[in-house]
Amino acid sequence: MDTNASQIIIRPVETKRDMHRFVRLNWELYKDCPYAVPDFLEDTLDTFNPRKNPALKFCDVQCFLAYRGQELVGRVAAIINHRANEHWKEHHVRFGWIDFVDDIHVTQALLETVEQWGRERGMDTIVGPLGFTDMDLEGMLTDGFDQLSTMNSIYNYPYYPEHMRRLGYEKEVGWVERKVMVPKPGHESNMEKYFKIAEMVKKRYGFRLRKFKDKSEIRREGYIPKVLNVVNKSYANLYGYCELDPEQMETYADQYLQYLDKRYLSVVETAEGEVIGMGICITSLSRAIQKAKARLWPFGWWHMAKALWFDKHPQVLDMLLVGVSPEYQDKGANALIFADIIPTTIQDGYEWAETHHQLEDNSASQSQWKYLDCTIHKRRCAFKKAL
Predict the structure, then answer these.
(1) Separation CA 244–CA 235 (nearest Å)
(2) How far is residue 234 CA from its own chain's centroid?
(3) C-alpha distances out from residue 291 to 23, 38, 299, 313, 340, Å
(4) Worst-scoring range by mean pLDDT, 160-164, 234-238, 269-273?
(5) 180-379: same fold as 5-176?
(6) Closest to 303 in 3D by CA, of 319, 280, 284
(7) Which of 198, 263, 310, 371 has the most CB atoms lying inside 10 A of its own CB?
């Protein structure tokens, strides 16, 4: 549906009520879509709260809402990550948390608002969808619209990327996501390769797997910064990455430890105790968030708890993070992670695992799945435009 551009009004988010509208628009647009996992209200509000998100100490942000008359028809966040711009020597304004009805005038008005906001602050390029940091949702879905999304990825309707192209935006970078089948009859794999390599590197390099008795031990033994420092090292050269500082590490730990099954935290150490690799997985919460209508309170917590602790037949495992320090990536350290996770997924009855999105040109990252039955089932990209 196209309307006259003059009918679209863009308003900045200025009040708590505006921010609730900003967050809940995603739910309103996608509540009837079986594949979308909407923004979690409480988590997203915290993301935009300077008292709760350390990234706002080095990021500027302004959220906007699009109205057609009295009807709310779109949203977008304009972001400048000064730390990333300085690191990559760029002058980028990011757009994120973008949603809009199928009206090109709405999309145009939202993006032109971000473009102007960026120009006024000395930026020369607009890119997105991106968040404050690489740990936020990023990338517009371009393929896989009939696949269930995850709590850590963006779902959007097929008309989104079409609008971007019509408005003169070009692809900046692309990511792929895989459905990795758990090795079972009918989905045979070469998984024994992981076990053989794992045993070999244990003997050759003295690598070992560190497991934990409970989640409190992870904090008590100081493993949060140790593990997330591996993320900093292994992701350092990836597109747009911005290094996590200690305060951010604690914030992300608070957010995700509550969902973690300690059996699905795999930490690889050297013989001297240096953490060089990690794998973090959780059971899929996609259906639970849909049933909770993207709100934890007053009743959404029950759907989350049921998925985490009471579901005896889980189907999907989300692989949140897998990383190995660069100097050890060619020494088989990742094999210990897979050799640790695979038997547990078989025991727990999972059918497949969803990988975190990976850069499509990162051949080293892509190759680690080669011994498993898997397929690329989603693609997404970030768009850019010169200002």
Answers:
(1) 10
(2) 16
(3) 17, 11, 10, 17, 32
(4) 234-238
(5) yes
(6) 284
(7) 198
